[in-house]
Design a protein that fits this description.
Helix content is about 40%, strand content about 20%. It has about 220 residues and is an alpha/beta fold. It has one domain: P-loop containing nucleotide triphosphate hydrolases (Rossmann fold). Helix 2 crosses helix 3 and helix 7 crosses helix 8. Keywords: Kinase, Transferase.
Length: about 220
């Protein structure tokens, strides 16, 4: 066993195999008309968070659910350069965690008749966030949010978690996840060598930290 394999965190909590239909059923159980609930999806990079979140919201429909990803709170590249953190973008301290926590608190308090809240969206093509890009109508009862650090117990991440009703941890096979990650980096312009280096370097460091938080999730699920 090489050093990297020995450092991989083993998730010992029971992992539930679940279909999308089952996830939709569980999410539907959270919906209470006239109230606001928030469902969080977390997991290591390339665990499938964005895909599953988008599928969930599409299945539930726009009158029931809206997707607000954590990635909108990436610090701008210029800020990361000033902080000396650009070379590890994606780590927990390269996000505006306080801003994200405040957004979730605002969304949690939103009730039918309140003004629309606008959230930022991260654009991978330009590696930057765009403010006020996601409208969240007050009448939509369920907000689905997804991101790496929902279960981290430092900085403002616990404040964000306190606004979320349930957090589900996505736990695909590690080799599948790493392969997805390399392909994603290549799709957004990295060479094969750079994609591999980033996936097994900064991304893998983040993955170990994220996987160490899995035991705090309400569910740990593996989706085909």
């Amino acid at each position: 066993m090489n050093r990297r394999e020995s450092e991989t965190v083993t998730i010992v909590q029971d992992v539930q195999d679940a279909t999308l239909d089952q996830l939709v059923e569980w999410a539907t159980a959270l919906v209470v008309p006239g109230e606001r609930r928030i469902l969080g999806l977390t997991g290591a990079p390339a665990a499938g968070k964005s895909t599953v979140a988008e599928q969930l919201v599409a299945a539930l429909g726009p009158q029931t659910a809206v997707l607000v990803p954590m990635d909108g709170y990436h610090l701008a590249n210029g800020v990361l350069i000033d902080l000396g953190r650009r070379d590890r973008k994606g780590a927990h301290d390269t996000f505006d965690d306080g801003g994200y926590a405040r957004l979730l608190a605002t969304l949690r308090a939103q009730r039918p008749g309140d003004p629309v809240v606008y959230a930022p969206r991260f654009e991978r093509e330009i590696e930057e966030s765009i403010g006020s890009a996601i409208p969240v109508p007050s009448e939509v009862p369920l907000v689905v949010t997804e991101g790496n650090y929902l279960l981290l117990e430092c900085d403002a991440w616990p404040a964000a978690r306190s606004c979320v009703d349930q957090v589900w941890f996505l736990a695909p096979d590690t080799d599948i996840r790493r392969t997805r990650l390399v392909r994603r980096h290549q799709a957004y312009g990295k060479s094969a060598e750079d994609a591999q280096r980033w996936a097994l370097g900064p991304d893998e460091n983040n993955a170990r930290l994220i996987e160490s938080t899995a035991h705090r999730a309400d569910r740990i699920v593996r989706v085909p």
